[in-house]
């Protein structure tokens, strides 16, 4: 069974940067969109950024100008570059792949903690 594996989380000071990676353990046919979500304690899981097969990018207003989503299709990998991190960015970050026939694959999550 194909799994998504995230990496790159950790503890960083306010104003710092992290780069998250999400790679598929095997081949997933027909990936239409690659997404990053985050879930803070006691809150719902929210979409942070999305990149679809047509190259369209969505970034939520809270992180616009600070976070960048990109992908390496050949490596079945999606990245989230996070700059100028703030305490409110603290959350577990999840990646999700969505295929053209509606299949969804989620990663296990990676913790990002922004604190001095």
Span between N and C termini?
A: 40 Å
Largest sheet: 7 strands, mixed
Mean pLDDT: 95
Q: How many helices does DSSP assign?
A: 0
Structural class: mainly beta
The gyration radius over C-alpha positions equals 14 Å
- Secondary-structure element order, as H and E? EEEEEEEEEEE
Shape: globular
Hey, roughly how much beta strand do the residues contain?
over 45%
Give the uncertain stretches in residue-range form: none
- How many strand units? 11
Helical content, roughly?
under 10%
Note the main attributes of this structure.
0% helix; 4-stranded antiparallel beta sheet; mainly beta; 7-stranded mixed beta sheet; 116 residues; 11 strands
Structure in words:
- By secondary structure, this protein is mainly β.
- Helix content is 0%, strand content 54%.
- The protein contains no helices and eleven strands.
- Strands 2, 4, 5, 6, 9, 10 and 11 form a seven-stranded mixed β-sheet that branches. A four-stranded antiparallel β-sheet has the order 1-3-8-7, with no helix packed on it.
- The protein is globular and about 40 Å long.
- The N and C termini lie far apart (40 Å).
- The mean pLDDT is 95.
List the helices and strands and how they pair.
Layout: E1 4-7, E2 10-12, E3 18-24, E4 31-39, E5 45-52, E6 57-59, E7 67-72, E8 77-82, E9 91-99, E10 104-106, E11 110-114
Parallel strand pairs: 2-11
Antiparallel strand pairs: 1-3, 3-8, 4-5, 4-9, 5-6, 7-8, 9-10, 9-11
Short description:
This protein is mainly beta and 116 residues long. Helix content is 0%, strand content 54%.
């Amino acid at each position: 069974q194909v799994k998504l594996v995230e990496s790159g989380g950790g503890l960083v000071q306010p104003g710092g940067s992290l780069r998250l990676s999400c790679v598929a353990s095997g081949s997933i046919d027909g990936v239409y969109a690659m997404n990053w979500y985050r879930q803070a304690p006691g809150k719902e899981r929210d979409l942070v950024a999305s990149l679809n097969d047509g190259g369209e990018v969505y970034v939520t207003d809270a992180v616009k100008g600070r976070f960048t989503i990109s992908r390496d299709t050949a490596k079945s990998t999606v990245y989230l570059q996070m700059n100028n991190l703030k305490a409110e960015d603290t959350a577990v970050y999840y990646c999700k792949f969505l295929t053209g026939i509606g299949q969804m694959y989620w990663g296990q999550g990676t913790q990002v903690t922004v604190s001095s």
